[in-house]
Amino acid sequence: MLLLGIVYWAGAPLLPYGSALSQAAGRRVSLAVLIGGYLVYHLIWDTPLGANEPIGVAHLWALIVAVAYALNHCSAIARRTCISRHVRTILVTNVWMIIIPNQRKMMAITKAGGPPQTELAKRSGRCSRHKPSCRSPSFFTMISNHFPDATFGRDCGWAILGGLVLLGFGAAKIIRDYL
């Protein structure tokens, strides 16, 4: 978020000149994607939807594809920027707001001689398992600048992202379960 604020919100064009959206509207859209994506991600995983991991992953995939599709009318720059920051914001906030605080709580409870808090460990573990899965869309959006004709330079860039995210989710599961 800080990088997005420094680079795009402070002056660099988030949208190309002649875009239907103004720079101010582009900033609002990017902020809504960051905050809304974070809230919906946790809504998925902190409700019964997330209790079943395959169902939670399907909803996470749908969230990423829906954001990419919704941003399809924006420029390629806005799509790459918003989606990449959206996924990385989820990753960073998981580490700093869930994994590390939960580890500190578990260590404090253990030092005090209290019983283990399995719910803290489960939530931290779930967020840790999502990191490899979320790297796929993040990586895709970072390299898409170099291959615009095969990625976001096309009208179906959102579908390509969806397919690559599924491949990334599958690869992360194979690595986690079998390697």
Topology overview:
Blueprint: H1 2-9, H2 23-45, H3 53-70, H4 76-111, H5 118-143, H6 157-178
Helix pairs in contact: 2-3, 2-4, 3-6, 4-5, 5-6
What is the percent of helical residues?
A: over 70%
Mean pLDDT: 78
* Total number of strands: 0
Which value, in Å, is the CA radius of gyration? 18 Å
User: How many helices in DSSP terms?
Assistant: 6
Which word captures the global form? globular
Q: Could you tell me the strand content as a percent range?
A: under 5%
How would a crystallographer describe the biggest sheet?
A: none
Instruction: List segments where confidence is low: pLDDT < 50 over at least 5 consecutive residues.
Output: none
Count of the domains: 1
| Helix-strand topology string | HHHHHH
Class from helix and strand fractions: mainly alpha
Question: End-to-end span in angstroms?
Answer: 33 Å
